[in-house]
Amino acid sequence: MLFHEIYGSYFAVTAAILKKALSGGLTRQEIRRITARSGFGESILTIPEALSDGTWPLLDPQMKTPLQHVPAMPPTLLELRWLKTISENPRVRLFSPSVEGLEDVPPLYDPSDILWFDRNNDGDPFEDPVYKEHFRTIRRALHEKKHLHIRYAGKRSRLEGIFFPLSLEYSEKDDKFRLYAVRAMNTAPESAGADGDPGNAVHALPDGEVDKETHLKRRYILNLASILECSPANPAATAGGTAEMRLPVHPGESDGSSSPPPRAKETIVLELLDRRNALERAMLHFSDLEKETVPLGGDRYRIRLCCQAEDETEILIRILAFGPVIRVLSPEGFVEQIRERIRTQRHMGTRDEEGNVSSDSLH
User: Fold this and answer.
1) How far apart are CA 83 and CA 88, in angstroms?
2) Which of 194, 202, 174, 114 lies closest to 318 in space, CA to CA?
3) pTM for this entry
4) pLDDT tens for each residue of 243-301
5) In which element (H, E) is residue 97 found?
6) 144, 216, 223, 302: which has the fewest C-beta neighbours closer than 10 Å?
7) Structural domain range at position 278
């Protein structure tokens, strides 16, 4: 956490008092009221007195201030160095952030100083010019709600057609960006299927097929690094295509817009044993998820994680990384996936008496 004293309570309370002085009508009673409302309990003993007796020469006896402008909180050098650091991150640079004013600011640290663990090593090529151009083309299409012509080649799936982009998502575990989109034209994929690698996932369905349970168009999930071509679609080729985005959310009910359909959520319940700082590690590890933590007594805690259903595989891998200090309680389907993963790992690790991996484990 970055902190500078100008963002502390005393500075914030004093700034609120000076704003009131500039607008007129400041009284000693008002100073105490602002201090009591926004400061710490003991602030009432310090701030009003320091402003009234001249210790802080910011107010005259008539409760006027010599300041000509409303107090503002400028960025500190620490914050500028932090901004310079993240602006050098190749993932952040995909968004073309402005670095004006940071040219002579040294970074807070060198990103190469950080040793990442529990992250896949085959992340996206964020510095590749073609990748960056695809990323920016997709961002523009998302912003402008335009269709894209995409040619895609995953590990076991290939397709080409006109798509309407729904959202971009970054996976910290896989170090990849994924595009969520729906097919907007009746152009069948060259070969349809679902890649086993969630980072290369593509859910290819016949055009017009709607999930019978949710009544929503199923989406394609495309790894950006596997997109061979990406360009704005010909407006003539997308005429009427947006209608597929307006499928009813419920039978007989239409949302009347081209906004993305709601994403199904799932709640995963865990029991954590706080050994080797496991609780703190879990709070950091799952900081990107909505969660609730309840102490059960001793060093045991119950954690509820709320995640998107399609992120289930990634969450499963992240949970397994904690080993025996975390036990999954529900939902039952997720528990069974955990068991199956463990059974598979044990099977693959089976060795014969000479220490060689058994032939059974190779099938």
Assistant:
1) 9
2) 174
3) 0.56
4) 344 333 333 333 333 344 455 678 999 999 998 889 988 888 888 888 889 999 889 99
5) none
6) 144
7) 265-348
Amino acid code (one letter) for 334: F
* Cβ atoms of 359 and 347 closer than 8 Å: no
**Total tally of structural domains belonging to the chain:** 4
Residues 154 and 196 grouped into a single domain: yes
Q: Going by C-beta distance under 8 Å and a sequence separation of 6 or more, which residues neighbour residue 317?
A: 173
What's the whole-number mean pLDDT along residues 301-306?
A: 92
Is residue 318 helix, strand or coil?
helix
Alpha helices in the chain (DSSP H): 9-23, 28-38, 47-52, 77-87, 90-93, 129-144, 278-285, 312-320, 332-348
For residues 82 and 17, membership in a common domain is answered with: no
Q: Specify whether 94 is located in the same domain as 179.
A: no
Residues 2 and 90 in one domain: no
Following DSSP, what letter does each residue of 47-84 receive, concatenated?
HHHHHHSSSSTT--TTS--S--S----PPPHHHHHHHH
CA dihedral 32, 38, 39, 44 (to 10 degrees): 10
